[in-house]
TrEMBL record:
Taxonomy, superkingdom: Bacteria
SUPFAM superfamilies, A to Z: Trimeric LpxA-like enzymes (SSF51161)
Taxon lineage: Bacteria, Pseudomonadati, Pseudomonadota, Gammaproteobacteria, Alteromonadales
PANTHER family: DYNACTIN SUBUNIT P25, PROTEIN YRDA
Protein name, UniProt field: Gamma carbonic anhydrase family protein
């Protein structure tokens, strides 16, 4: 894995966290306990910070980035990902805030200033435009994202189970020699 310092700030990695050797983490990136960062993920906390909550998994080819502070936006847009979140393959999360128990489908793009409340499914390929709020308990799909329907109880349960599945997988990877 490539963990790089930027302006005297290095990524902070929690306990029992798996970061694939091909992933790149730069600058102000914090991974809580039991996080998994899979192949070819790029997390660049250079002009703001990235926080990744416990038991969250970020899958292959995903890009995590932030927006710098400015006169018009004094705090900029950090990237904050809650707990028990599954981020699918080849997603782009840029300066947004995700709550807990969220599934971000493959290839989704979530832009600056977006707030995703807890217990949300975001369908594969969905584009969430800047400054939108996705309310808890719904499936969102499309370009731009639209609220499709309320989540079924079994889908809400799956949000937590998806995180549990990835904890088991990352533990298997951590047990492998040379990982």
């Amino acid at each position: 894995m490539t963990i790089r310092q930027y302006k005297n700030t290095s990524p902070k990695i929690g306990n029992d966290t798996y970061i694939d050797k091909s992933a790149v983490l730069v600058g102000d990136v914090t991974c809580a306990d039991d996080v998994s960062i899979w192949p070819l993920v790029a997390a660049r906390g250079d002009v703001n910070y990235i926080n990744i909550g416990a038991r969250t998994n970020v899958q292959d080819g995903t890009v995590l980035h932030v927006t710098r502070t400015s006169e018009n936006n004094p705090k900029g847009f950090p990237l904050i990902i809650g707990e028990d979140v599954t981020v699918g393959h080849k997603c782009m999360l840029h300066g947004c805030t995700l709550g807990d128990r969220i599934l971000v489908g493959m290839g989704a793009i979530i832009m600056d200033g977006v707030i995703v409340e807890d217990d949300v499914f975001i369908g594969g390929g969905t584009l969430v435009p800047p400054n939108k709020t996705l309310k808890s308990g719904y499936l969102y799909v499309g370009n731009p994202a639209k609220q499709a329907r309320p989540l079924k109880e079994e889908e809400i349960q799956f949000l937590k189970q998806s995180a549990v599945n990835y904890i088991k997988l990352k533990d298997e990877y951590l047990a492998e020699p040379n990982n």
